[in-house]
Amino acid sequence: MKEAYFTPDNIAARAAALLRAADGYRREPPFKFSADDTALLILDMQRCFLEECSHAFVPSAPAAIPRINALAAACEKVILTRHANTRENAGAMGRWWREIIEDGDPMGELDPRLDARGQIIVKTQYDAFYGTDLEKNLRELGARNVVITGVMTHLCCETTARSAFVRGFDVYLPVDATAAYTEELHRASLLTLSHGFAVPILTRDLLRLLGVNL
C-alpha cells in the first residue's frame, strides 16, 4: 500500500506533475499573499512517521524535510504539531487504527532532521484545531494566510486545511512539503482541496512569495 513516490532525486519533477494534475480544479486565489500575515504549520513530523522501523512510516516524507526546513527558515511565524493520544481521548481514531501514538513514546518525538523553531501544539485528532489553542495562537500572531506542511496529506493536512478555511484563513498547500502513504492519496487530497479550500503551490514558488531569492 505504501510507496516512495517522492525521493530526493525525483521530488521536483513529481511535485510539478501533481500540481499540473490539479489544473482543472485550481484557480488564481481571490486574495493577495502577504508574507507578514503568513504562518507556517508543520504537522506531525514525528519519528513514527519518518523512521523506516515504524509501522506508520511514510516513505515519501523524508524527501520533504529539506523543503519544510527551507519554509521554516523563511517564515517568522511557525507552529509545529505533535500528535499524541491516550486511550481515552483517541475517540474514533482509537477504534479505526490498530495502534495510537501515546504521549511519552520516544517515537512520538519530532524528527531530529527537522530544523524548525516555533510554538509546539499537542493534538489528539487529525484536525489540529480540535481541542487545541491553534486558532487562538494564529490570531495572536496576526496570521491571515496559513501554509500547511507535514504528514499525512490525506489525513491531518487535509482535515486541518478544511478547518482553517472554515475559520476564515487563506490556506496554501505546498505540494512537495507534504506527504501521504501513496501518490494516489496525495493526488486525491490535492484535487479536492484545490477545488474549494486551499491554493496548491510548489515550495520554490512559495519561497519567492516569502521574499527568498532562489
Which SSEs are present, and which pair or pack?
Blueprint: H1 11-21, E1 38-43, H2 47-50, H3 61-74, E2 77-83, H4 92-96, E3 119-123, H5 134-141, E4 145-151, H6 153-166, E5 170-174, E6 178-179, H7 183-196, E7 199-201, H8 203-209
Parallel strand pairs: 1-2, 1-4, 2-3, 4-5, 4-6, 5-7
Characterization of this structure:
The protein contains eight helices and seven strands. The chain is of the alpha/beta class and 214 residues long. Helices cover 36% and strands 16% of the residues. Helix 6 (153-166) links the parallel strand 4 and strand 5 (170-174). The protein has a single domain (11-28, 35-209), classed as Rossmann fold. The model has no long low-confidence stretch (mean pLDDT 95). Strands 1, 2, 3, 4, 5, 6 and 7 form a seven-stranded parallel β-sheet that branches. It has helices spanning 11-21, 47-50, 61-74, 92-96, 134-141, 153-166, 183-196, 203-209; strands at residues 38-43, 77-83, 119-123, 145-151, 170-174, 178-179, 199-201.
Salient structural properties:
214 residues, Rossmann fold, alpha/beta
What's the number of extended β-strand segments? 7
**Total domains, how many?**
1
Sketch the topology as an H/E string, one letter per element.
Answer: HEHHEHEHEHEEHEH
- CATH level-four homologous superfamily name: Isochorismatase-like
Roughly what percent helix? 25-40%
Radius of gyration: 16 Å
Largest sheet: 7 strands, parallel
